[in-house]
Amino acid sequence: MSDTSHPPAAHVRKLADGNQIPVLGLGVWQVPNGPDCVNAVRWALELGYRHIDTAQAYGNEESVGQGLKESGVPRAEVFITTKFYPGSKDPAAEAQRSLERLGVDYVDLYIIHWPQRGPTWAWSGMERAHARGYARSIGVSNFSVAELDQVREVATIEPVVDQVQFSPFEYRRALLSAAEERGVAVEGYSPLGTGRHLSNKTVRALATRVGRTPAQVLLRWGLQHDLIVLPKSTHRDRIAENADIFDFELSERDMSELDDLDRSHGTERAREGKWW
Ligand code: A2P
Fold first, then answer.
1. Rounded to the nearest whole angstrom, what is the distance from the C-alpha of residue 128 to the centroid of ligand 1?
2. Are the CB atoms for 137 and 99 separated by under 8 Å?
């Protein structure tokens, strides 16, 4: 058994603003508000996760807060992210509403969910949320390098995170290296391709070769590329499986075999298509 006071799933890295973020987080996109979400969050925290990623648009912040409370893990030990829904007007006012739904005094990270109506208009409101203490770190999601640079031009407080879809099949090499140059940590959402990549032949063969599951191989690939990975599951056994990625290493050969699965052409774009 690992030391439960410092579970491996709580491994952290430092953001550019000095705050620490656990490199594994539970994603709860598409988990309805209610018992499934409460249980997933509680199980994750019981299993050693210390990072939960939700959003105003997911509609499940109450359940995230409930799961946190039921887990008994102190608030201060958990990194909570929520995202500003850019169909709303005021990021600071919406952050305050998120805090009420979550039942917490602050979130660790608050990010613009996508660059709807342009990348820059919401940033001053994000800074206001930060100044008022609603959010300890602020950042963006679904922003390309060009959009990230536009934000940085107007920023007093620079974004420290860009959360984008990322996996070997969406290996946004140019975005990752540009973000790194700018001191922006990349968080990968849908690291399992919302489940689709788990049945890929190459991934499965590699998993068999290294004695791990396809999910573990995909997540480990992300960690070895310095991503923060945010797998989603509502099943306890899978939540546990997805956290068991800190005691093995993929070789250079394994990594490059996975790198070669990229279909994004190493893009610096965050999305192939927009939904907004
Ligand atoms: P479920 O929530 O029913 O467990 P992503 O993180 O890329 O969005 O992928 C999430 C999808 O992958 C969900 O459908 C989830 O199903 C499934 N999933 C998550 N972890 C595992 C796992 N370890 N093994 C198999 N499927 C998984």
1. 35
2. no
Q: Is residue 244 part of a domain?
A: yes
Asked if residue 84 is part of any domain, the answer here is yes
Tokens of 197: 């990549």
Q: Does 58 participate in catalysis according to the annotation?
A: yes
Ligand 1 binding pocket, CB closer than 6 Å: 27, 190-195, 198, 215, 231-235, 238, 241-242
- Give 81-108 pLDDT, tens digit per residue: 999 999 999 999 999 999 999 999 999 9
- Chain center to CA of 80: 10
CA Rg value for the chain: 18
Q: Which atom of ligand 1 is nearest to the CA of 242?
A: 23
pTM above 0.90, yes or no: yes
Rounded to the nearest 10 degrees, how much is the dihedral formed by the CA atoms of 54, 187, 229, 193? 80
Domain CATH code at residue 47:
3.20.20.100
Q: How many domains does the chain have?
A: 1
Domain span holding position 108: 12-259
- Residue 82 domain flag: yes
Closest atom, ligand 1, to C-alpha of 230: 6
CA 216 to chain centre: 16
Q: Both ends of the chain: CA-CA distance in Å?
A: 46
Q: Does any domain span residue 4?
A: no
User: What digits encode the pLDDT tens for the residues 193-227?
Assistant: 999 999 999 999 999 999 999 999 999 999 999 99
128-169 pLDDT tens trace: 999 999 999 999 999 999 999 999 999 999 999 999 999 999
Q: Is the dihedral of CA 25, 29, 33, 35 positive or negative?
A: negative
